[in-house]
Fold these 2 entries.
Entry 1:
Amino acid sequence: MKNIIHRHKSFWSQNNLRWSGIFGLVFLALSLFINYGANIYVTNRASNSVSDLFLDNLPAINVGWIFFQGTIIFFIFVAWLMVKEPRRIPFVLKSIAIFILIRSAFISLTHLAAPPGQPILSLSNMFSEITSGNDLFFSSHAGMPFLMALIFWKNKRLRAFFICLSVFFSASVLLGHLHYSIDVFAAFFIAYGICHIAQWLFAKDYELFLKEENV
């Protein structure tokens, strides 16, 4: 714990790093605000559901615990990784913000309704501010853990953990009929592109991040 406190004192005492971290937090907050607006937009314009090769042949299972609590645990773990090493904060926050912004744009383009036959999940909690159930393309449950795997690629344990988590979440949302299969499979390719966009836009933050990931 003393080492962690020392790292944070060192990080936040440096003017350029402090402002980079603050910008990351503001950028993330802005992306969540835009995501909120995008969710309202797609909810008001959702049309009809369509058939899907996978969902038509998979039973619908209630995966509410994984969908909600699993997401919370995932982000708590990511937050802990940043608390443990503050030099990770700027790049991780900005990468997540870009992910949310791009996804907000994508869900606004096509207005399919949620797949039919899914068990009813109550959104009467903080998730109702983040997802409407009609924000389908692309799946954040598949894409976000995979993005973390790409970001922490040099750390073999974290890479393996996030890849396994991404596959687990992908299977869950398909079995729960919460996403179409294209939402899930496309997420891996889009997350890969987002990672490279973040590395290009925030090259200095990425260089700072890599100093802590050469393991």
Note: Helices lie at 2-13, 15-45, 64-84, 89-107, 140-151, 156-175, 181-201, 203-210.
Entry 2:
Amino acid sequence: MSKTYKTSHYDLIVKMEREHFWFQSRNRLLAHIVDRFIPKRAGKTFLEVGFGTGVVLAQLASLGLNVEGVDVNAEAVSIAKRRVHAKFYRSSLYSFIPGKQYDAIGAFDVLEHQSDDRKFLAKCYQLLKPNGLLFLTAPSGMWLWNSLDEYAGHKRRYEISKLLDVVNKAGFNVLYWNYWQMFTLPFFIIFRSRKKKLSEYLSVPPKIINSFFLFLSYLELPFFLRFRFPIGSSIVLIARAGLPTTTV
């Protein structure tokens, strides 16, 4: 959800997301989480903020949700319309006035792009129905920060204490959180240290390596909602609109 994203970045993402282990495993993980936290989806509305190419919206629509998306980038809207039947809004979240509230909102690797993340979350809160659900993913650990974060337009990576604090202060009750991509983290660190350009980062690894990483990522899935992983390159969080409380 960034005006600074170049058309070439979207072109690279569209080409890679059908094959790249990270996109494939994230989509499967999000479907798993949504299935668990929204078991009765008929008639439920889901708004994705910063939907990019629409790949997650397509996944959510396949689960039976009524999906909509808002993104500030015209290229995102154009690409997503070709991928999934949904209602799209080209708008900044802060000026977005749909005239209704949603059962659930998702912001997947979007929060780290916001200058004021608390303001962003407060707006999400306003757009949710009472007891509505918020689904978030964000990169973890400032110790992993390098030039690729800058190229991607990140303002920060999140320590879990910081993310829990800002989500709670926005009025949410955190239901669950966990790290993701624990098994691939050592390779992630090595890979990022060798890649100096965003175009290099947005490329599919060689097939055998990509398949191996996909296997490692899928290994996490059966345990994701059962055990708290000690570390990972991303954080996944689910929260409910309500009074902030001590997190689980």
Note: Residues 125 and 132 are 8 Å apart (CA to CA).
